[in-house]
Design goal:
Distance between the termini: 30 Å
Order of helices and strands: EEHHEEHHEEHHEEEEH
Strand content: 15-25%
Low-confidence stretches: 109-125
Helix content: 40-55%
Number of domains: 2
Largest sheet: 4 strands, mixed
């Protein structure tokens, strides 16, 4: 998976192997545990950093890794961001050290406008076929991931263009059941025709 790190006018391309992201899950969980008890984000103390704030904190560590040419640490920090922010393409790093100014650019998960909808959806305009609806729902609903001692997933809200976190579930199984319901609801909505 590719993450572009933008520092002023320089762009660093960090190509993180999927295998590394899988193997690094215990490391990512340790990072989350460290942040569970709060974090100093520049001048502000944040009691419970949310997912975006956690990625901003890790992006600050990524900046340090790139500046000190620590490639291994840079790959691990990029891996965390890729794992926790589905659809992220690049991060703009704040060189002044203002953690909350680290910004992420997410890929749009909408179908390309080049292909007319009617040809891809024979069952009516604005609707998706079964396979396309399943594929799109898979992009709009993330896999479950660990947050502290609990589990959650995220759903992409096309109306606001942002990711919405699910409630925190106590076990991976509970989160998976909730995710399955969210996936099914999104899949059925896409087949009926998405709201614009």
């Amino acid at each position: 998976m590719l993450l572009k790190a933008i520092i002023d006018d320089r762009i660093y391309e960090l190509n993180v192997p999927d295998a590394l992201i899988g193997q690094a899950q215990p490391f990512f969980e340790k990072l989350d545990q460290d942040m569970d008890s709060g974090w100093q984000m520049s001048r502000e103390w944040v009691e419970r950093p949310d997912r975006l704030q956690r990625c901003q904190i890790v992006a600050d560590k990524l900046l340090t890794a790139l500046e000190s040419e620590n490639q291994k640490l840079g790959m691990m920090m990029a891996g965390y961001i890729l794992a926790r922010l589905p659809g992220v393409e690049s991060v703009e790093l704040d060189v002044q050290g203002e953690i909350q100014n680290n910004r992420f650019n997410l890929a749009e998960h909408r179908p390309t406008e080049a292909a007319p909808r009617a040809t891809t959806a024979p069952d009516g305009p604005g609707k998706l076929g079964k396979l396309e609806a399943m594929e799109q729902a898979g992009k709009d609903v993330t896999k479950v991931f660990k947050v502290g001692r609990g589990w959650r997933f995220s759903v992409f809200d096309h109306a606001t263009g942002s990711w919405q976190d699910s409630p925190l579930a106590p076990t991976e199984d509970d989160a998976s059941r909730l995710r399955q319901e969210a996936f099914k609801a999104r899949y059925e909505a896409l087949q009926r025709g998405r709201d614009h």
